[in-house]
Amino acid sequence: MKIGVACDHGGYILKDLVLEAIKDCGCEAIDLGTHGTASVDYPDYAARALSLLQNGGCERIVLICGTGIGMSLCANRVRGVRGALCFDLYTARMSRQHNDSNCLVLGGRVTGPAVAREIVEVWLKTAFEGGRHQARLDKIDTLADMVSTDK
Length: 151
Ligand code: RB5
Known about the structure:
Bound molecules: D-ribose
Structural class: alpha/beta
Shape: globular
Helix content: 40-55%
Oligomer: single chain
Radius of gyration: 15 Å
Largest sheet: 5 strands, parallel
CATH topology: Ribose 5-phosphate Isomerase B, Chain: A
CATH class: Alpha Beta
Order of helices and strands: EHEHEHEHEHHH
Distance between the termini: 43 Å
Strand content: 15-25%
């Protein structure tokens, strides 16, 4: 499995260990920057990873900013992307089992390196349960239409 990884300066502190954790799980990690601590705009780096995902260049992506919030906002604007901001192993596991998350979001200023590494491992190794959860995910794709016509 190929995993694209992108961060801004706030997430840079976690990027190398995320790349390493991905490789240690037997996956291919694609480093999409940023490559230092200079200030950059997180949507620009989200766009790199989201484009790669949408074009089929990878199966999943990891986005990292300071809090994880900005990258989450970016990810969940894109149809078919299920971005999950995870802070612990439980949310990481559930994001896969129930939400079929294809985009893990981490906050470099709120999650420590050891926890981040384990989150990545759990997120990569946990399977989607399908069933009733798939039906719920299907409803997400029609959510905008449902809300705009439900007057
Ligand atoms: C950058 O200072 C910071 O705003 C960004 O990394 C992220 O936390 C935004 O949500």
